[in-house]
Amino acid sequence: MKPEAKLKRVLGEGRFLVLRELEYDNGSGPRLWEACDRNGTGSAAFILARIVPDDEILLVRQFRPPAGRLMLEFPAGLIDPGETAEQTAVRELYEETGYCGRVLGCSRPGWSSPGLTGETICMVRMEIDGDACRGRRIEPHPEENERIEVFRVKRSGLADFVAAQEAEGVGIDTKIYTYLAGMA
């Protein structure tokens, strides 16, 4: 028997999120589970943007109300209806950081917190021509309510940069820890 979750009832709904009670049976009898999902596509993309030949990556820092603190993250955004993860990455990179880059590849959708949400996220690898950026003013184009700080971080200094952010009380997105582990 293949377990399957079915909507039992909607517990609450807001502008961006819906809280659902799900019913499932994994072979031990019927069980209930609460899940929080996004309205819309329920999918997102995060951008691993490398600046060459400088060997830097782009990170952003912004306040995240659910975490109650500033968070250090890779640039990211929700995939709009009719949009691909790659299109979202190009749009979000420009909006959040002001940089333009070319897409090198895109992962299949994955789940970052499947015990809480069915939201999927794709990793889009991008490359930014650092030489083309030199001497130019790079301006982010955030939404009206966004306050995003952009950091260009040498990959060789990433662990130290993350440690300094942690020491300041900044939360670190687990995708950054995963990236650091892959570099080790």
Automatic annotation (TrEMBL):
Coiled coil regions in record: none
One of the GO biological process terms: ribose phosphate metabolic process
Record has Hydrolase as a keyword: yes
Residue ranges constituting the Nudix hydrolase domain according to the UniProt record: 38-177
A matching Pfam family: NUDIX
UniProt key word Hydrolase: yes
Gene3D superfamilies hit by this protein: Nucleoside Triphosphate Pyrophosphohydrolase (3.90.79.10)
GO MF annotation list: pyrophosphatase activity
Keywords from the UniProt entry: Hydrolase
Family: Belongs to the Nudix hydrolase family.
Record-given protein name: NUDIX hydrolase
